[in-house]
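From the shared-data thread, chain only:
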Amino acid sequence: MSPTPKILAVLQERRPHQIHFHSIKMKHNSENERLFFSGSMKMADLVDSNSDLLGVLSRMGIRFGFGDGSVEETCSKWGVSTNTFLLICNVYTFDGYTPSTNILKKADVKDIVKYLHQSHSFYMDNALKDLEGSIEKMLEPCSGKQKSIIWTFFRQYREELEKHFDYEEKTVFPYVESVIGHSEKKGFTIGQYKENHSNIEEKLGDLKNIVMKYMPKECDDRLISAVLMNLYGLEKDLEKHTSIEDDILVPLVKRMEEEDGRKE
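Structure, as tokens:
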């Protein structure tokens, strides 16, 4: 998908002298030229171009109050790699974005892991609780059987998500830290993680379809819409999360393994 008119307006019209043009590889459309965010942009302009980046700020540990500071100045203030921050911003802004090898080399693996860890906390402590609250309101007029069906799907999905994140927190991230520290940790490689990376979106899609297609007429359409907005928002964010794991973390760590002489 091409950048929205709003993104182009910020990047081209409001700050044309700050824009750096790069050839960004897009899945299924690698020949197209795409705009790349720049460290010299004002942080406020970057966030204003895509509201989805609000979540990136909090998970990277960047606080508001950055005034007219540039992206690079703001990242430096909060001890965040500018290149890593811009890389994640591109994932969230351009659908199908896949970074080149040169761009990946500039990223900080520690910041990537920190971002993924904070994302796990956000999903479990915020996103799922918001979704649960909206489901509870929607189900008030429903029968016990109808409520049971929805809650069963929700709980199964939450358990699957917890299991997925627990594996990454207890196995994958400690392994990545061992690679960063050049310490020995046998019996695992990042390739195994890639091969066994489970799909965490299927049950979410099932829940979305049930809510959209089969809620009884007694349910308030506004409350159904609120649940669906939470589901679509979570689904979209998880897609970006998976892209960061598969297209950034895995190739970065694989290269470090090769440099360290680790075998598959």
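Residues 13-35 have pLDDT under 50 and may be disordered.
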